[in-house]
Amino acid sequence: xxxxxxxxxxxxxxxxxxxxxxxxxxxxxxxxxxxxxxxxxxxxxxxxxxxxxxxxxxxxxxxxxxxxxxxxxxxxxxxxxxxxxxxxxxxxxxxxxxxxxxxxxxxxxxxxxxxxxxxxxxxxxxxxxxxxxxxxxxxxxxxxxxxxxxxxxxxxxxxxxxxxxxxxxxxxxxxxxxxxxxxxxxxxxxxxxxxxxxxxxxxxxxxxxxxxxxxxxxxxxxxxxxxxxxxxxxxxxxxxxxxxxxxxxxxxxxxxxxxxxxxxxxxxxxxxxxxxxxxxxxxxxxxxxxxxxxxxxxxxxxxxxxxxxxxxxxxxxxxxxxxxxxxxxxxxxxxxxxxxxxxxxxxxxxxxxxxxxxxxxxxxxxxxxxxxxxxxxxxxxxxxxxxxxxxxxxxxxxxxx
Length: 401
Description:
Strand content: 15-25%
Helix content: 40-55%
CATH class of the largest domain: Alpha Beta
Structural class: alpha+beta
Number of domains: 3
Radius of gyration: 22 Å
Strand order of the largest sheet: 5-6-1-7-8
């Protein structure tokens, strides 16, 4: 008989803003927004405190729009090094409760606490939540469920400082009435496709004919059907984050060159590879590193952190070329490389910055679109980069409450 699993999903509330408040107590109870280019009226709000949200400030607004709604809004530029340090402290703390901790992004992760049979799951979750507040001065919501999907859905239900349990027998009451677009894993394009077939709520999908779902939406539709019915056997994988801590590609040119056209063409090719990997991993990047090796083997690397997430070929290429131009000393170039880091899942990134525009950017990437069409029809992992296949090869229900 299979042992019941108990999975926690820890979701930090308004993480960037909360970290700023924790480190600058004078900001407490003030409406706060984190934005790029804070000195410009058209800077974009990345995230905001709950006090700011109560006054109508929303992600993707310009600073100018936000200040019309909230004249006393405090606007800060993001401090990614601080956010990463705080995230490291958080996950180090979580591993004290179980070795089975999977970092899903800078501000969310899964814990498998099935072996913690000496303390009730609700009490354990409460202890973790209170400790995060006490030691890091940060709020979080915790979802408790028999699998990762339901735990993720549960953590979204009460914010800030919420705690929600979803048992499989509660699906109809807690989950099925929600709009299909609220389902983790359903993006705006998929939501439109479902709506066109009369699938408006999660319950509509859960109670649909699975054969028709697969016929109309492919293997990915069938997977979403299973999730809507609470079926998810994915394990909590502690090594998942480390495998994708950074991704990079470099190329040695056929001959040393000063040609900007050759250099830009090379950066374009490298960017296309990286955009493909980001799309397949469903992550966005907030850090780009350009490596330039000159004819005499002198090598320089330059880092650039971003407020807006990088995901499309065009975004990666434009930033990489800009970094190159800013740091190129005019000598002949022998090798070029681009590395991306500081990843966040797309679903998590949408909490802090709207990523839906990246659908439009990707239209120019014919290869990515072709792969997407195949994966939509036959399943999310029909075509994978070779590195993913190697990773998958290495990787090896109910709550009872």
